[in-house]
Amino acid sequence: MQRTDTETASLREALALDTFGPQVVAVGGGHGLAQALGAMVSYAARIDAIVTVADDGGSSGRLAPAMDIPAPGDIRKCLLALTPDDSTWRRLYEYRFETSDVGGHSLGNLIIAALAEIEGSFEGALRSSERLLGTLGSVIPASPQHCRLHAEIDGAHVQGQVQVQRSRGTISRMWLEPVTAEASESALAAVADADQIILGPGSLYTSVIAAMLVPGLTEAINESPAQLVYVANLITQDGETLGMDAADHLDALLHLTGVRPPSAIVANDVPVDAEPPLEAVSADGEAISTYGGDLVTADLVDRTAAWPTHDPTLLGRILAGLVTQ
Predict the structure, then answer these.
(1) What span, in angstroms and rounded, lies between the C-alpha atoms of 163 and 171?
(2) What is 5-56+140-323's CATH number?
(3) What is the Cα 199 distance to its own chain's centre?
(4) What is the pLDDT of residues 231-245, one digit of tens each?
(5) 296, containing H or E segment
(6) Whole-angstrom distance, CA of residue 214 vs CA of residue 100
(7) How far are the Cα atoms of 16, 55, 142, 304 from residue 187, in angstroms, in the given order?
(8) What is the pTM of this model?
């Protein structure tokens, strides 16, 4: 059941959301984007998550090509990140089958795929999902069609998001196929209306950059007057960013997408435990300054998490403060 305006207003008040806050757009995918969305609910009046559609692992990897739809996995995670309360629908979207013909499938992915057929479009499926879950924002696929990620790594051509993620080496070029893919109209509209655009945290190449490779999206970000912020990861990622500091992350983002330099780079400044060969992502102010942005550091670590993760409350305070600058 869709909430009434009164119910929505009461819920926003209970969660300390700022009805008069900024319109915020987040770009990326996976767990990192979900954490960023959790941070935004504390200060944004409107939240739009623009999510990569190049995921080809697990349940998404089976559904997307078979049904010719954008990969639903990262999108489902973002829907759940914007769902403020427990419900039967939330538990259904979270449920994953372990055995039988549907073993390994997320029920939420299957529901989204079914709704795409019922509603006649993938974005229609997401709007229905938002009503069922009572989300506090909208989730938008970067493109209305499934795309396959390609990369040139140490001179070799690597295909698929999972393979790119697992490949160690220097990534010199990335692109999506089909080449006819275009950014979702709703994604472009959200960027045009945004007051603040957040890139990251999350897998640098296979989430953040993969989403921005959809033709038209980076161009829209560059034309937008919105404040652009990059949130650096807490630790490096095996197969993607080993040995890279925050400036290296930023350099790869700008080089591979052509996006304008962010006005602010947010990074963690407290110790983080990481299993070698992983290590904490350090941020050197002098190196960051060469890109023209301000380095903003703070304690951003969620100490209740089993894996190094951004604390949504701590990150939200930093992002909210940037809007008022």
Answers:
(1) 12
(2) 3.40.50.10680
(3) 8
(4) 999 999 998 899 999
(5) strand 294-298
(6) 36
(7) 26, 18, 6, 33
(8) 0.91
